[in-house]
Write a structure and sequence with these properties.
The chain has about 675 residues and is an alpha+beta fold. Strands 2, 3, 4, 5, 10 and 18 form a 6-stranded mixed beta sheet that branches. Strand 23 and strand 24 form a beta hairpin. The relative contact order is 0.11. The C terminus is likely disordered.
């Protein structure tokens, strides 16, 4: 029987074909789904990351640091300027191995260990698109060495940046301060976006107090660059906003005259406008050159300043705490009137000493034989210690403390400058808290003449004098007079209150007259002038104590053991325009300090308007005066001018009769 074979199964083939087609289609769709998912993952989930990566060699956003605001005196004389310097920077985005690059750059740019440390601190905190400063103020040698091998350092650039310059050098150092490189501590507290591309920040003085106004707001520039960091084109730009310009209450001429009086001496001078609280001059001597700190001070220079026995970095006007001596007697006498302890008719008999009831210890008057019959007016004029010993015994330390604090003693004045000292007006609570012992009656007597634990700053003394000149109206000392720029800041130029006083307006006038007689016929008569009336008070503060029964003998003391000389005053007495406090360390007595004050008062009241003192080589630009001094010259002409003026004014001082202030306060 013949066998039949099926040569083709059409249905089965169709099923197989369809299965293969469906499988192929499913595989294609499966692969497509994977591809879509991958695209979604890259384009949606990681869009920003890969977008930035793709633009790494193409689009860059670089910060534009703002120019720092200028600082002027009250007359428009430039006190803090900006000038460009060459700076080496490194772009994080263009350098693969930062550590290796830095290691190779050290000998090329002569990087110091401090430069390396600062760079390493900053590079960790900035954004990847930013350039980090390697070294400020490159020398011509640095630039030449780098230019020869620039191709070996892709991502390292030489560019210009603005830095600070102080044309008058030492003259305003303690009040204006200086800027310096941002350190690790400051990096943790500043807004990094606000300081993008910025290396400098205010360290002390006005530069620190008004950093927010002076700094400005950074801008940004979008650029297209190749893989080597070379700029191909500029895509967009948002300009930075320059910091505010500051106009201070300081007067260049008055500051110069004040600095001349302390040239070669240790001490401080503060002059205020008692009507507004504006600081007209603030001098601490010796001073220092703030330009040294701007682009990293050399170790040797800093060591010389730090180890100097005269402490030029120390701001004596704000931080120096001195026994105020007899300068506080007018304020203290008004306290006696306030509490009804004494009045202008209260009279004592001064034998030259005072002792507490039941105690044989004698608190000596500066005049060994005593002053005889003394009322309040005479006690101020001749600075009778015994009168104030008795007044203090009757008032008591608690009431004295409450009263004197109204004049600003024992507390910060609120001045718009950093690092102000509180001074100290002691009382029993303070002694128990700090020394774990009870207050002694004799300590009250010492405090009454500005000795013992009582210490005050020159600024506090100037403020207390201004309050006395104002008949009790309180002002807040400040150096900022006005500001110009994008940021708004209000300055208060008016009295901020009045002390609580139970006396009358006549009492203030009588105290003024007593202080006038200090200059006319009392311990400050060496600076009497026919041109205007000065109301003042001299003071002498002991540096080395004298044992009971011993006499003060200058011949056995070193220069630094001599008494401090102090003077406070205001003028014209009938309508005060200036209040001043002077301390001359180891100046021997208050009459010497008064002689320092006289040329300052003369300049402000007589010379300033008719023949103002101006910077050497100054020029007028846009209504503002700028010193024609190049940064490299470092204000040599100003130093020469100060020396010349000092010689001229010293001749003037030598013609003032010597004071006869023999105060030796206990």
């Amino acid at each position: 029987m013949k066998q039949q074979f099926t040569l083709k199964n059409v249905q089965q083939e169709k099923r197989i074909f369809r299965g293969r087609v469906f499988f192929a289609i499913a595989f294609v769709f499966f692969c497509l789904a994977i591809l879509i998912a991958r695209y979604a993952y890259l384009q949606i989930v990681h869009h920003e990351e890969f977008s930035n990566a793709s633009d790494k060699n193409r689009i860059r956003l670089q910060p534009i640091p703002p120019a720092r605001g200028y600082i002027y005196d009250r007359n428009g004389i430039l006190l803090a300027d900006n000038y460009p310097v060459f700076t080496a920077t490194l772009s994080k985005a263009d350098v693969t191995d930062i550590d290796d690059t830095l290691k190779r750059l050290i000998p090329v740019l002569d990087l110091s260990p401090e430069d390396v440390e600062r760079f390493n601190s900053r590079v960790k905190t900035v954004k990847k698109t930013e350039r980090v400063t390697l070294k400020l103020n490159l020398t011509e040698t640095d630039i030449a060495k780098f230019s020869e091998i620039k191709y070996q350092f892709p991502g390292v650039y030489i560019e210009t940046q603005m830095t600070r310059f102080y044309p008058h050098g030492e003259l305003f150092a303690h009040v204006i301060g200086y800027v310096g490189r941002i350190n690790d501590k400051e990096l943790k507290s500043i807004d990094k976006d606000a300081y993008a591309g910025t290396n400098l920040i205010g360290k002390i003085g006005v530069e620190k107090s008004y950093e927010d106004l002076l700094h400005g707001t950074p801008g940004y520039e979008s650029i297209e660059a190749d893989a080597h960091g070379n700029v191909l084109r500029h895509l967009g730009r948002k300009e930075s906003v320059r910091g505010n310009d500051l106009f201070l209450s300081l007067d260049y001429g008055l500051q110069t005259v004040a600095a001349e009086q302390l040239a070669g001496r240790r001490g401080a001078i503060v002059a205020l406008d008692p009507r507004t609280g504006e600081i007209l001059a603030l001098v601490s001597s010796p001073s220092f050159n703030p330009n040294l700190f701007v682009t990293d001070i050399r170790h040797d220079d800093y060591s010389a300043l730090r180890d100097n026995l005269d402490h030029p970095l120390y701001n004596r006007a704000l931080q120096g705490s001195y026994p105020p001596g007899s300068t506080i007697k007018p304020m203290e006498a008004l306290g006696g009137i306030h509490y009804g302890t004494v009045d202008w008719g209260t009279t004592i008999s001064d034998p030259g000493y005072f002792h507490l009831p039941g105690d044989s210890h004698k608190f000596r008057d500066w005049k060994k034989s005593g002053h005889g019959s003394v009322n309040m007016h005479k006690s101020i004029t001749i600075s009778c210690d015994t009168y104030f010993y008795i007044l203090a015994y009757q008032m008591g330390i608690e009431r004295m403390n409450d009263w004197m604090r109204q004049f600003g003693f024992g507390a910060k004045t609120g001045v718009d400058l950093p690092s102000e000292s509180e001074g100290l007006y002691p009382n029993p609570e303070w002694k128990m808290r700090t020394r774990k012992s009870k207050w002694l009656r004799g300590e009250t007597i010492s405090v009454s003449i500005g000795q013992g634990a009582f210490i005050a700053t020159p600024l506090q003394l100037a403020l207390a004098t201004a309050i006395t000149a104002n008949h009790g109206a309180h002002v807040t000392p400040h150096v900022l007079r006005s500001t110009r720029g994008a940021k708004v800041h209000e300055v208060i130029n008016a009295p901020t209150g009045k002390i609580n006083f139970n006396g009358t307006e006549e009492d203030w006038i009588k105290m003024r007259d007593a202080m006038v007689d200090v200059i006319q016929s009392g311990t400050g008569r060496g600076i009497k002038t026919p041109n205007y009336l000065i109301a003042g008070k001299t003071g002498t503060a002991q540096v080395k104590s004298i044992a009971q029964g011993k006499r003060y003998n200058e011949s056995i003391l070193t220069d630094r053991q001599l008494d401090h000389g102090l003077f406070v005053g205001f003028a014209p007495a009938e309508n005060p325009e200036i209040a001043i406090a002077v301390i001359w360390e180891n100046g021997r007595h208050g009459g010497s300090a008064a002689r320092i004050a006289r040329p300052i008062l003369d300049y402000w009241l007589m010379q300033r308007k008719s023949n103002p003192m101006l910077p050497a080589n100054h020029q007028v630009s846009g209504g503002l005066m700028t010193a024609g001094i190049k940064p490299g010259e470092l204000a040599a002409s100003t130093v020469a001018q100060v020396a010349s003026n000092a010689a001229r004014l010293n001749n003037t001082i030598s013609n003032i009769p010597p004071a006869e202030d023999g105060e030796l306060s206990e």
